[in-house]
């Protein structure tokens, strides 16, 4: 009898758990449409262009994960709507952090999601992640990471058998290039995990591999992608033989509020009885409790007080 190989162990991380659940191109497309008000199957197809078979699969995954719930709206024949649950709506902070990053680096007034209005002040929304205790914007340089009560190791998630996107999966041109860029960065499991690992201070190939338990060819490919996209820069630290480090660029570091928001969401919904695996402490001395604020009026931002600006 052949002994089964023990599963690889990875560091417990609420951000990693969140990415394992939603860090997939088509899942992100569905969530984007849901936050834009889409509820019915054909509406998801129309907005995202995702193939119907893939859409069915991702809707089932999000329902099983507790992010969407299916509600009947017609009996004969049976028809269903897919609505965000409280868990799903709570991802709004993370969605806004991805949006804010897009807007700071690749703003385009023609992109619908770049035309969100903060209703209390009536101004175009420029979302920022702030420390609830002191109100200051969250920057990676102001954060200290320490183990939480749920720290430790857990089995690495099983490999996904989903194939990559092709022209048959996403049809037409319903998505704006800005949205495409955000999904390219976050919508691949290993790309997203590499960025998160870089925020832990990892820089070298062997350290990324030890942390993520990723195959060498996949790690090489994703590092090259992130360098090409301007998220990482390659810096030589040894000449003979040549050795390289991969460091976050300014644009890469600016994605930290998204990681912090995902970590907070994962703590609330995925940490279980063991508690938070990691604790973030802000430079003000308080444990970081991130909240989204409007950069114009500093007011709170949530799904109830934002809307898409009307077209001219």
Q: Strand percentage, roughly? A: 15-25%
CATH topology of the domain at 88-153 and 177-308: Arc Repressor Mutant, subunit A
Report the average pLDDT across residues.
Answer: 89
Structure annotation, total helices: 12
Identify the notable features of this structure and list them briefly.
312 residues, alpha+beta, Arc Repressor Mutant, subunit A, three-stranded antiparallel beta sheet, two-stranded antiparallel ribbon, 12 helices, 38% helix
Protein model, in words:
This protein has 312 residues and is an alpha+beta fold. It has a domain at 88-153 and 177-308: Arc Repressor Mutant, subunit A (Orthogonal Bundle). It has helices spanning 14-22, 25-35, 41-48, 52-64, 86-89, 92-106, 177-186, 189-199, 205-212, 216-228, 250-253, 256-269, and strands spanning 9-11, 68-74, 79-84, 116-118, 123-124, 127-131, 143-147, 153-155, 232-238, 243-248, 278-282, 290-294, 306-308. Strands 5-4-13 form a three-stranded antiparallel β-sheet, with no helix packed on it. It has a two-stranded antiparallel sheet with strand order 1-8. Strand 2 and strand 3 form a beta hairpin. Helix 1 (14-22) packs across helix 12. The N and C termini lie far apart (70 Å). Mean pLDDT is 89; it is low at 162-174.
Brief overview:
The protein is of the alpha+beta class and 312 residues long. It is 38% helix and 19% strand.
